[in-house]
Amino acid sequence: MKKIKMVDLTTQYLRIREDVHSAIQDVIDSASFINGPSVSSFQQKFEAYLSIKHVVPCGNGTDALQIALMAFNLQPGDEVITPSFTFIATAEVIALLKLKPVMVDVLPDTFNIDPVAVEAAITPKTKAIIPVHLFGQCADMDSIMKIAEKHNLIVIEDACQATGAEYRLSNGQIRKAGTIGHIGCTSFFPSKNLGAFGDGGALFTDDDVLAKKIRSIVNHGMSVRYYHDDIGVNSRLDSIQAAILSVKLKYLPDYIKARQMAADFYDHAFSGIKELKIPFRSSASTHVFHQYTLVTKGINRNSIVEYLASKDIPSMIYYPVPLHLQNAYAYLGYHKGELPVSEHLAESVFSLPMHTELTEDQLKYITSSVLEFINKK
Q1: Which domains does the chain have, with CATH numbers?
Q2: Separation CA 217–CA 234 (nearest Å)
Q3: How far is CA 324 from CA 111, 317, 346, in A?
């Protein structure tokens, strides 16, 4: 059996090697390495895939979140609500812009931001909400958008882990992750469901005015060369990465199916095992399984991770310390016990290998090893 990897990008690449090499060679032959034709071509293809008017490529997913906040006239001290159980980038960009991160708890089933907690956290200084579609499943966007409309708040979707997920709104309309709020953000980090061969990201919106502002910000605040109307940054998706993403975008539906099939295998193996809680699948959102994350019950999470490592099975703990308890955010004054769901998840979750290249033999070995650990307890 082939060595199991947490993410097997090598085998995925080998399947599309000729297409990738051809795309890269076209960029090299054109010598259009920055903002070349491959960038605009990918942008248009991604707009069509998302069914949205504007995609603005940028340097990475963290930049996308920061640029999204910069597109609004927010002032130092303005508050932005975001979940505590997520990757640091979401809160990081809020703090970097001298805004105040307001961290709230998540739901115990989806691990996504709790709308009730969001509304309870709103103050006169609240200006925006950043829901995170964690691990590949959309947050409760119907509730979030209703709260935002009621309180006149901005919604920036962090869809970095959920590219391709679909959300069914209460009116029956189906939208892709990141296309429901005012701005959506994604990352093309190599391990993402749609990953480049380096860093990359994008913002998307249906708002023409916002799109113009974002395009200016990503390019030093320029709309016309050497005329700077906005305070901007230098955050561009390079042409080679765009060319690779155009190739991989064609395969994204197949990649999603492969991840869902692997998740189905895991679900079948662990369903009914009282020591493990399998991922919840919302009826409102498809799940594209950027990660397959289990909650442990009555067993030591760290011990099972160590046991799997002894069997040459990688696993990961996302995220061992919730954001409100990170040293970097101690100045906000949060204390242990304030966000109990986030804290419980941080102490009890672990993620199994999840990627497009998992074989049945590998899945059998992983699941049997997990069950072997549980049966020994």
Answers
A1: 9-102+111-246 (3.40.640.10), 252-376 (3.90.1150.10)
A2: 8
A3: 15, 17, 12
pLDDT over 70 percentage in the chain: 100
Q: Is 168 strand, coil or helix?
A: strand
How far apart CA 50 and CA 186 sit, in angstroms, is 12
Amino acid at 216: S
Beta strands in the chain (DSSP E): 54-58, 79-83, 100-104, 126-129, 154-158, 166-168, 174-176, 183-187, 201-205, 222-224, 227-228, 276-277, 292-296, 349-352
Pairing mode, if any, of strands 154-158 and 183-187? parallel
Instruction: Name the pairing type of β-strands 54-58 and 201-205.
Output: antiparallel
What's the CA gap between 367 and 97, in Å, rounded? 44
Distances (CA, A) of 187 to 7, 56, 61, 89, 348: 16, 12, 4, 11, 26
183: Cβ contacts below 8 Å, ≥ 6 apart: 68, 71, 154, 155, 156, 157, 203, 204, 205, 207, 210, 214
Name the DSSP class of 104.
E
As a whole number of angstroms, the distance between CA 323 and CA 94 comes to: 13
Helix, strand, coil percentages for the chain (3-state, nearest 5): 45, 20, 40
Helices (H) and strands (E) in the chain, counts: 12, 14
Taking only the tens place, the pLDDT of each residue in 112-161 is 999 999 999 999 999 999 999 999 999 999 999 999 999 999 999 999 99
